[in-house]
Structure formats: C-alpha cells, structure tokens
Amino acid sequence: MSKAAAPRIELASADASIAQEMARWLSHLGAERRLSPKTLEAYARDLRQCLDFLCSHWGERVTLDRFAALEATDVRAFMAMRRADDVSGRSLMRALAGLRSFGRFLEREGKGKVGALSAIRAPKVAKSLPKPLPMASAKRLTDADERAGEERETWILVRDAAVMALLYGSGLRISEALGLKRREVPRPGEGDVLVVTGKGNKTRMVPVLQNVLALIDEYVAMCPHSLPPEGPIFVGARGGPLSPRIIQLAMERLRGALGLPDSATPHALRHSFATHLLSRGGDLRAIQELLGHSSLSTTQVYTGIDSERLLEVYASAHPRR
C-alpha cells in the first residue's frame, strides 16, 4: 500500500490518531482506488458526521481504540439520526459504504477490526427507472433550429445542439462529452469512433454518427475562439471550459419550447440512447459496453423501460412446443 504523505485533517470530535488514519484512507482511495473527488468529499463528510455523532453519543472525543470497539447499536443509532434528518436511503447506503471502507482500511493497517459495521444491513433503496424521451423529441433536441428565436449567437446554439447530439447519438455522460479534446474528435469521413474517459478514469470506445460529427464540425467552424488540439473541443461563450450547467439550462429552455416534462434532462438523452437501442433489438451486453457500466445489473435497469419490446421478443422467439 502506498505510504505517500497524506494531507493534514483537523477533527473537533476525534483525536489525532483518527484524523491521521482518515487522511491516509482518503489518500489511498484517491491514489490507488482512483475514486472521484466528489466521492471522496462525500465519504469524508459522512465519516465526519459519524464521528461528531459518536462524540456526542459517548460524551467524549473518539479515539482509534474506541472506534475499533464500535458496536452495532452505535451504528444503528447514527443511521437513525441521519434518517430522522430526512436523509435519503441512497445517501445512507453511501454513508455506510464509506464507513465500511474506513473500517477495512484500519483492519488492513493493523489498527483494529470494526466488526460492527459489517453486521449492519444496508438500507433499502427503491430503484427508480430512468425516463427516456420519445425518439422524435430526442432528435429535435439536437436541432439548433429549434432555438432559432433565442437572442443568442448562432455558434452557441450549434454548440449546444452538437453536445446534445453526442449525448443521444453515443450515449455519453455530459462530463464525458465536455471532457473531449479537439484532437480526440475525428472530422466527418475521417473516423467513426470516439475514445472517452468515464468514471474511475476508465476509457472506452464508442461509435459516433457521421451526422453528429458534421454538427460538431459546423460548430468548430463557427466558434470564434481558438480550439487547440490538446484543449477541450467545447468551450464557453468566453472561450473557457464549457460548464455542464450551460447545457442543463439550454435543455430547460428547450423543454418549454417543445412541451417536454421536467424529466427531460441531458442525462435523459443517455437513457434514451440505451432504451432506443434496446427497443430496436440491441444486445444488452453490448449496450453495457457502450455506456461504460461496470456491471450488467446497472444496465438491466433499462429493461424495465421497454417491457413491451421484451414481451414481443419473448412471444416471437420462445419455443412453445
């Protein structure tokens, strides 16, 4: 395990030994597990909240030895306190996952075994099915002419349409689309594949349609800012990195113009990509690869959307005799 110096952490509710191990744990998760900064921030916040609760619950600052002797009743009391604050089941599940990760880290480092954490059941989280857009609506979102009446420069309208075309045409996350460098996007007729960097810095290859590349090429030709090969291909109004919020706002304006529900978000275009592929007979395992899901079970959420199509396949393909 890496022994690189960890950033110093100050804790009002725990002693220096806990703070030191917490800093080393977060460094390990970032450097070796390659968790995202947002996940690390959430895990750190959850552990701080737990330590604050335990300090109040026990009436003393938390030491490493006392934390290692944590009992299941202590963990349940913390979870009950968080649930009383109207924290969602998904957030509670993440908090428990983070605490278990910290406990495993302490055990590997020979700092005690926090057995109580593994004795707690993870809270149930209701699976929410994504809401894909109708195919015609998804296509209209990628048409810059749909916003022709807005008082915005034409290149910005074309830019936003190109980003949405990527989300729908290749099933990208918005962060993946905005993270593309200019050199990574082929010109029309010069390629049909993108290499994108997804969660955990994992790369994958995804196909890209020629009409999507043509729309991106149109934006590049109209963009008034310099777009060097190593820089982002999509830039903001002043030439800096394009914020995801700008695309979200563009989608909000289009929702009103096209009469779409609030569920029509940039991420809904990614769901629509998967759903429409599935409805046309796409293989679930192939869709998993295109989306960059590490588990097929994550991709299987999409099967609940188009049950009508699955029943048709069943009726036509299952041997009755």
Unreliable residue runs: none
| Shape, principal axes of CA atoms | elongated
Q: Please state roughly what percent of the residues sit in beta strands, choosing from under 5%, 5-15%, 15-25%, 25-35%, 35-45% or over 45%.
A: under 5%
* Count of helix runs: 14
**Helix coverage percent of residues?**
40-55%
Report the mean per-residue pLDDT as an integer: 84
Radius of gyration using CA atoms only: 24 Å
Going across the biggest sheet, name each strand in turn: 1-2
Helix and strand sequence: HHHHHHHHEEHHHHHH
Total DSSP E strands: 2
Outline the biggest β-sheet: 2 strands, antiparallel
Q: What is the terminal-to-terminal distance?
A: 58 Å
- What structural class do you assign from the helix and strand content? mainly alpha
Describe the structure.
A hairpin with a 5-residue loop joins strand 1 (193-197) and strand 2 (203-207). Helix 7 (154-170) packs antiparallel against helix 9 (210-222). The protein has 321 residues and is mostly helical. The N and C termini lie far apart (58 Å). The longest helix is centred in the N-terminal third of the chain and has 22 residues, at 37-58. The chain is 53% helix and 3% strand. The protein is built from 14 helices and two strands, in the order ααααααααββαααααα. It has helices spanning 16-31, 37-58, 64-68, 72-84, 89-108, 135-141, 154-170, 174-178, 210-222, 244-258, 266-279, 284-291, 296-299, 307-317; strands at 193-197, 203-207. The model has no long low-confidence stretch (mean pLDDT 84).
